[in-house]
# Entry
Amino acid sequence: MGGSLIRGTADRLVRSANLGKSKYLRSNQIYFYSKSKSWNRQLEALRRIRPIAAVVPEHLSSSLPSGVAVITHRNIPSAYWKLALWNMKKVPVRVVAVTGSAGKSTTTEMIHSILRQRLRTVKTQGNLNTFTFLPSYLLRLKPGDHLLLLEMGMKSLNNIARQCRVVRPQVGAVTNVGEAHVGSLGSLDAIVRAKQELVEGMRPGGTLFLNADCPGSKKLSTKRFRGTRKTFGITNPANLRAENVKYTNTGMTFDVLLDGRKHSFSIPTWGHHNVYNALAAIGIARSLDFSVSQIQRGLARVRLPKMRFQVIRGKSGRRLINDAWNANPSAMKAGLTVLHNMSDNRPTVAVLGNMLELGRYSRWAHQKVGQHAAKLRLKQLVTYGQLAKEIGRTAVANGMDSNKVFHFTNRSALIRHLKQTPEQSIIYFKASRKLHLEKVIDQLKHLR
# Structure
């Protein structure tokens, strides 16, 4: 990676590397200085944790604490990338990439739950899924690892393409193509182009899975793809097609025809949208030669990310559904459909907040959700935030009883209202991350 070792020795074993994330600094790491972060905060962490080594500009080298080896470098981001690429070449693994407007994290967790039974896998952590975080995963690879499982997110064009140029996935999936990030990309066509980057960034001879039921996915071109293209779906003909999709008390069950035989699968979460995620996971696992029983076991035991349709048992029989990690219109409509389907004659309350990053499509998107909400037999529709007011307004315009629609811009007032919901209610929460609806849920967990 270059640079000059000006203090310490090169004989200590470094377990991982860290670029500017002093909050996550560990003593067995090599730390790379970040000019975008406060140096005082970085230095405070270095003095407290004392990692094995630190890579810093020359003018900061004298301020580092004793016991920390010091490497100076003129281009620290370049040094970090060189180390990551060196480690990737040292530990050759197969690469699986997952992208899509919704369901990336859930699909990634489903895949990992299956693969971990047999393959040592390094995977994306949380929502750290853009090009910026890719080196950290390359640096986690160690001898004996078999596979790198990457969730590929983006907030601009060329982000997925840059990731693919580095790792060249052998297996890939696009869960769907919808409206998420349309504000930052500017148009729905730009979103299609962004997801197209995975199709064109695959390694020749690879295997690609696409959603046969998603209108946006049908706009993806595979003309230049040099590999095996497979589809998954529920409604339209597909290579992997779910049948007999049913809701249960613990999640969903469905059947899939594999190798001429029908097999049953179950997942511990609800909704047809999660069946699509499971189908993508099944396809990827089969392409990696996993048996049906291994896939069944992995899906049944998957631990899904928090705040993705996370069911919390409240007091007086209430059930709180925390689906508030983030929101776009397709995901919010899917969540409302699940709420309706799992109600079992219990009162249903939908708490819907602002959907952000939609740009000029914002009003249209909130109206679409309102139109969908009007079709469902909700006990209450509660909106939170100025943008979300359009959801309630549109629902009433489409026939929903105005006495069942409530709007709040103040969190405390929202909490006071929700404390009056009927016993046995199912309360569903969905909004963009910045609204922090989990803080509302925390106040309602012990509602009597």
About this structure: Residues 310-444 form a domain with the Protein-Tyrosine Phosphatase; Chain A fold (CATH 3.90.190.20). The chain has three domains: 4-75, 91-300, 310-444. The longest helix spans residues 272-287. The two ends are 59 Å apart (CA to CA).
